[in-house]
Write a structure and sequence with these properties.
With 375 residues, the protein is mainly alpha-helical. The protein has helices spanning 3-12, 22-30, 35-40, 42-47, 55-78, 90-111, 119-123, 137-150, 154-165, 203-213, 216-225, 232-245, 257-266, 268-273, 290-304, 315-327, 353-369, and strands spanning 187-190, 252-256, 278-281, 309-312, 333-334. It folds into 2 domains: 3-149, no CATH class; 153-369, no CATH class. Strands 3-2-1-4-5 form a 5-stranded parallel sheet.
Length: 375
């Protein structure tokens, strides 16, 4: 049995080991964007004719498909009866990464017509059966979560609780944040803040229209046709998304719909270039509370294979968003951003600091009582 086969078999069929050490986790998370991964995937990329994609989509394919498999293999090796990938000599690491990439490409090439493949389908091929299929993305996410949580000491836990109790505007996130980041982040989870048209009661109309259209791009055009106004808060969040895309090392974005529209409206060229990186979450009913947005965001992570996100939200709701994600099995890193209140919002509680502080305090108490947050 090969090293990869042994790792997969034992990791899928044994009780998870103790949480990975910091250096093992950081190594695994770094592989997603590493030169080692890109070099190892060269032949596999040629097999699948990835070069026919745009430069942006080629980078996404590398990080989403080959990078995701490299991270998964590295973390699985910690939970197997084999030496970890981190412990192998560099040449041996490279060989195993080449094997897993080429095996994937050979399987994928048999299932699709590579020469005529569309960008969307090729980038969606993470759903294809591979030798890593016995290791669900949700399981791998749980390994990352356990390793990150194991690094948080009692003082950091207390600081986290203190930040949740503190609803004073402008107090979160502190700099530096008291929970250390670990390894490369692979996604940004973007939480909307208010909107200047469409009330909460009218969200069912948005839900119904999105279900009827069944296309995010066409839904953006529909929102434009009804002159939807996302509001200054969501425009500021969209500007931060634009900054992340223009930074030179873009990652995937899981975005609440109001912010996606603001990004589409204000940054059309970036929206077009990085469309494949964007996953939009939509309301289910006449209200789309933060915990539902986070549940949907984590579901996207598990579908695509993302494990170590950044949280982007209005600073005054960040502590609650982080607490919800922690309860859902994700340890996010908060991203500080200057997001204004929205004086013209259809949601009264986001119009100024005082209104929001009262609403936020009640929401935080309710979340604790319902067990929706963890510190």
């Amino acid at each position: 049995m090969s090293y990869i086969e042994s790792v997969i078999d034992s990791a899928a069929n044994r009780t998870p080991a103790a949480p990975a050490r910091r250096e093992v986790l950081e190594h695994a998370l770094s592989l997603r964007y590493s030169d080692e991964m890109k070099d190892a995937a060269q032949q596999a990329s040629r097999t699948l004719e990835v070069g026919k994609l745009t430069n942006e989509d080629q980078a996404l394919f590398q990080s989403r498909i080959f990078g995701g498999m490299a991270t998964k293999l590295a973390l699985a090796s910690h939970n197997s009866d084999q030496p970890t990938l981190y412990q192998l000599a560099p040449a041996d690491q490279q060989r195993e990464l080449e094997i897993v990439a080429n095996n994937y490409a050979d399987t994928a090439a048999k299932l699709i017509d590579v020469g005529s493949e569309t960008t969307h389908t090729l980038l969606s091929s993470y759903n294809m059966a591979t030798e890593l299929a016995p290791l669900p993305n949700k399981l791998v996410r749980s390994w990352v979560y356990a390793a990150r949580r194991a690094q948080i000491n009692p003082i950091q836990h207390l600081k986290n609780i203190g930040s949740y109790i503190n609803v004073v505007p402008g107090s979160f996130p502190p700099s530096p944040y008291f929970i250390d980041s670990m390894g490369n982040n692979d996604a940004t989870l973007v939480q909307a803040f208010g909107r200047d048209s469409i009330t909460d009661d009218e969200l069912v109309l948005i839900r119904d229209e999105r279900q009827k259209i069944n296309s995010d791009d066409e839904m953006m055009a529909y929102l434009e046709s009804i002159d939807f106004k996302p509001g200054p808060s969501n425009i500021a969040l969209a500007d931060k998304v634009a900054y992340l895309f223009a930074s030179g090392n873009p990652m995937e974005q899981v975005i609440q719909w109001e912010v996606t529209y603001a990004f589409y409206q204000k940054h059309p060229s970036l929206y077009s270039r990085y469309r494949s990186y964007i996953h939009t979450v939509w309301p289910h009913s006449g209200f789309y509370p933060t915990y539902e947005v986070k549940e949907d965001s984590v579901a996207v992570m598990d579908k695509v294979g993302l494990y170590n996100p950044i949280e982007l939200a209005h600073g005054d709701m960040m502590s609650r968003a982080v607490g919800i994600l922690t309860k859902l099995g994700v340890q996010p890193d908060p991203l500080a951003a200057d997001i204004p209140f929205d004086t013209d919002s259809t949601q009264p509680h986001v119009r100024n600091e005082r209104s929001f502080m009262v609403r936020e305090a009640l929401a935080r108490v309710e979340h604790v009582l319902r067990g929706r947050v963890t510190f």
